[in-house]
């Protein structure tokens, strides 16, 4: 009988991505409520070495396939292995990452296993011995609770990075490892032609703790240097409204909103953004929101914890100096 | 070359969402329907292949009668023909149910490439396109921000957290589109385009036409369902800081440091 929880980790460039620890932490909590073990699947090139560390987050046993062919995520290699593992270990609940690769993997697994999958969940709980998941729809304009049909197996969910709390790891605890050798398909694979790292190691918006976003009020691309400076000071990254992206001031990857990225940082600072519904939908789940706008009627102010009605070109340089002073004294 | 674009009709992104009396869906009485923006990027990418390679572009959608309007919009942009799977038995399908219907429709059509948005901006599931690739047994190139087609292969670029990746797959392949409006700049339907669209073939199909049993789809086959839906807690508008610029900057710094403890 299916029991327990299995997390599908994400391993890249020699390390687990943080979201793996977040879903392991969440998986631990669910396994405690549900009963049964917390297991993990770890696929990658060189993943064996770090797999035991998942024990620090409460994982009891890790099923590992370590192969150079698994260096990059590819459906043709990852999906058959993960599907076979899930069928053999039979967890009741499967958690995976709502990352770019995790989305492909989880949807393919759900199709292959004929399973129900709730994506981008923000809250998970056990109700009557089964999983219940809360997930945003309409970019967060509505929130839905989902449940799985009687007999549906497995109950699959993904969580975006930064959403689930990560336990402080107990580094003394190591997970048991079960290594499997699998014959991987070697031909006719999707080809990873090249991977280019973003210059300056820019944090992805979906993974950033602090985001400083600029909109039409920034008046031009050159003025985003101020936002870059502020974001760097705060250890964050720069985002943009759709109009700033449409104007060609910022790359599309910076766009926050219903047709861009939905973000959940701890601190979101909106500068010169009036707050169109589709932008608000993309950032309203941020923990703290600050807006700087000269129009006191701007809709963005209805969502902010702290509002500053001022000319951003006057306010920002002063604010940046204040933050610098603070940073130099603590 | 045959390109099929999977297209979904969704509420306009500027819609203020209201919850229906059933407590588990949205109130659709007052909604303006549009083509899912990411699917619009897919249509644009397909039309560029129509121009460069003479690709035949077919729009495939499932949904109620109103979805005809979304297909006509894509035909007015320049797509060649449309197919709508309209069957009441599909209502309440989960992502897998929808993917099964679309995969069955694809089996009855010729294609080299299948295009669609990486997600629809209503359910935000990010599943259906990928599941269609899995059920059809073809590669999926996800979240494309560019595409090139040559020598029987499709090559895309896509963002990956903190990086950009170039991927290539042998056709037939399914490509889901990401990026933003500014990346694809989907064309508008011209007036002559709208006139022509009225005469383009648009076929309506039922599950029986596709050989899909009603038991495989719809609410009773769904592995997962929405049990309740609500609006997020309204954020309370917080305080607006007082004083001159210097005072406001000092106060904001203090609040973020001492009260919110985030800097």
Can you give a write-up of this model?
The complex is a heterodimer of chains A (330) and B (263). Chain A is α/β, with parallel strands linked by helices. Chain A has two domains: 5-179, Rossmann fold (3-Layer(aba) Sandwich), CATH 3.40.50; 199-329, Rossmann fold. Chain A is 26% helix and 27% strand. Chain A has seven helices and 18 strands. Chain A has helices at 18-34, 75-89, 100-113, 224-233, 242-246, 277-283, 312-329, and strands spanning 5-8, 11-12, 15-16, 38-44, 61-66, 93-97, 116-118, 123-127, 130-137, 142-148, 155-159, 176-179, 191-197, 210-214, 237-240, 267-271, 288-293, 306-309. In chain A, the strands form four sheets. Chain A has a seven-stranded parallel β-sheet. Chain A has a five-stranded parallel β-sheet with strand order 15-14-16-17-18. In chain A, a hairpin with a 2-residue loop joins strand 8 (123-127) and strand 9 (130-137). In chain A, helix 2 crosses helix 3 (100-113) and helix 4 (224-233) packs parallel to helix 7 (312-329). Chain A is elongated. With 263 residues, chain B is an alpha/beta fold. Chain B has two domains: 2-221, 3-Layer(aba) Sandwich (Rossmann fold); 234-263, no CATH class. Chain B has eight helices and 14 strands. In chain B, the strands form three sheets. Chain B has a seven-stranded parallel β-sheet with strand order 7-11-6-1-4-5-12, sandwiched between helices. In chain B, strands 8-9-10 form a three-stranded antiparallel β-sheet, with no helix packed on it. In chain B, a hairpin with a 2-residue loop joins strand 9 and strand 10 (163-170). In chain B, helix 2 (67-77) crosses helix 6 (191-197) and helix 3 (95-107) packs across helix 4 (128-136). At the A-B interface, helix 2, helix 3, strand 7, strand 9 and strand 10 of A face helix 3, helix 4, strand 7, strand 9 and strand 10 of B. Strand 13 (191-197) of chain A pairs antiparallel with strand 10 of chain B, so a sheet runs across the interface.
